[in-house]
Amino acid sequence: MKGIIVPVDFSEQSENALKVAASLAKKHDAELFVLHMLELSPSIMSESGYIAQEQVVHLIKIGEKRFNDFLDKPYLKDIKIVPIIKHYKVFQEVDEIAKKHDADLIVMGSHGTDGLKEIFIGSNTERVVRSSEIPVLVIKGEIEQFDLSNFVFACDYKEESIPALKKAKQMAELFGADLKLVYINTPGDEFLSTEDISNRISKFLNLAKEGLNVEIYNDYSVEKGILNYSETVGADLIGIPTHGRRGLTHFFMGSIGEDVANHSNIPVITFKI
């Protein structure tokens, strides 16, 4: 792992993410790119008067000082940190920064009460997930020691999810975690017989050229199945694929991906397909 990006807004949630990112950076000797996006009023930025420009400079200086103070933490000692400040909230820039610095992972914190819509401020983080070409790790609450043993990956085992599986496998190897694949079978229109599920999974793994085992778990909904299965096996991380064009709202069907990230107390990592 070469580089990790952590967008921060000085909140408790973003510091939780920063701690996890710092832990990963130490373990893998990676650079830590800490990104802060200043919220400057469009009305101020559009003014050309001397007073308005003075206000802009003042706000930038305040933001930079607060950023520097935020990064003055004991757990960041001996880590190569690259602070990055952007003066606008253009979230596609996160992906551009990832490409520029050849970063491997984005780590973000979540309040957890309203899912990914509460990461950062407002509903902006779903835009990061939507545009990110690299995995996004969503952290819930404070984690004293980010050690991974069991990594659950769930998908619908259709061909488009193969790249996500490949990335999940690479991530599991990097973290030294046991990768557990699961298919959630639900009643109703989405129900599949044992034979149908086995055929779909077999075809998927043949196309992926992976000799992995997939467990079939029955539950009333995909979301509940992922969460219940993950708790049963003692998962430390849940991986799910996402459609970049629509963020998390079209994983499997409906808003299951967003619901999983919202209701899971376990960290969630997303892979764009």
Describe this structure in words.
This protein is of the alpha/beta class and 273 residues long. The protein has two domains: 138 residues, 3-Layer(aba) Sandwich (Rossmann fold); 123 residues, HUPs (Rossmann fold). Helices cover 39% and strands 22% of the residues. Strands 3-2-1-4-5-10-9-6-7-8 form a ten-stranded mixed sheet, sandwiched between helices. About 7% of the residues have low confidence.
In short:
With 273 residues, the chain is α/β, with parallel strands linked by helices.
List the helices and strands and how they pair.
Blueprint: E1 3-8, H1 12-28, E2 31-37, H2 42-46, H3 50-70, E3 81-86, H4 92-100, E4 105-110, H5 125-131, E5 136-140, E6 150-154, H6 162-175, E7 178-185, H7 194-208, E8 214-218, H8 222-232, E9 237-242, H9 256-263, E10 268-272
Parallel strand pairs: 1-2, 1-4, 2-3, 4-5, 6-7, 6-9, 7-8, 9-10
Antiparallel strand pairs: 5-10
Helix pairs in contact: 6-7, 8-9
